[in-house]
Amino acid sequence: MRNSAFLALGFAVLIVQSILFRLLDLLHPALATPSLLLPLVVFMGVHEYSIGRGAALAFVLGYMLDVFVAGPLGLFTFISAAAFVVARFAGVRLAAQTLLTKIALAFVFALLEGVLVVVFTAIVGDDPFRARSTAVLIPAHAATTAAFAPFVFRLAERVHAATIASPLPPETGRS
Fold it and tell me: What's the rounded Cα separation, in Å, for the pair 86 and 173?
């Protein structure tokens, strides 16, 4: 149930992200689109998800992002799974409780995502100037991701709370 809910939330977030890309491009072509999927993956990493289930879910969400963007296939699949594992092993569950720490966490992970995108695009890309032009947008991308992160965290918290398995009612014994 929870996996399906997070997949649906991830798909909805990707649709909103693609709409934001079009809107921000109309406003100013140099504006960086926020990564709305990254805070969702970080949320899963800092909460009670098993490493196997969470990494698989992050892998599928990253693959969905790969399908949405025009980059090398597998780029965001790897980055999403790696972001989940790093967030899980960092053990920052208690640090992601306040608004400021959510923003800071999203900013740091967005910087790491941007660096990984530039590095992998430079390695496997056919256009050497794409990596350079992408590198310029890393700080703006991290800032816009951090600005939208509290909203994504709030949505993820609602889905998380709604999908918590309720304890079974006590059995009534017949005497």
Answer: 47
Task: Specify the CATH number for the domain of residue 47.
Answer: 1.10.1760
Examine residue 174 and state whether it is found in any structural domain, yes or no: no
Q: Is residue 170 part of a domain?
A: no
Tokens of 5: 């809910």
The domain tally of the chain equals 1
Question: Average pLDDT of 101-115?
Answer: 92
Q: Please return the burial class of 26, using the count of CB atoms within 10 Å of its CB with bins 0-12, 13-18 and 19+.
A: exposed
Distance CA 127, CA 56 (A): 31
Q: Which ranges of the chain does DSSP label H, i.e. alpha helix?
A: 2-27, 37-46, 51-68, 75-90, 99-124, 128-136, 138-162
CB 41 within 8 A of CB 80: yes
One-letter identity of residue 48: E
Whether residue 78 is contained in a domain is answered as: yes
Question: 116 pLDDT band (50/70/90 cuts)?
Answer: very high
**Cα–Cα dist 108/126, whole Å:** 28
pLDDT value, residue 168: 55
Residue 172 placed within a domain:
no
Q: CA-CA distance, 95 to 102, in Å (whole number)?
A: 8
State the residue range of the domain holding 135: 2-162
Mean pLDDT of the region 136-158: 93
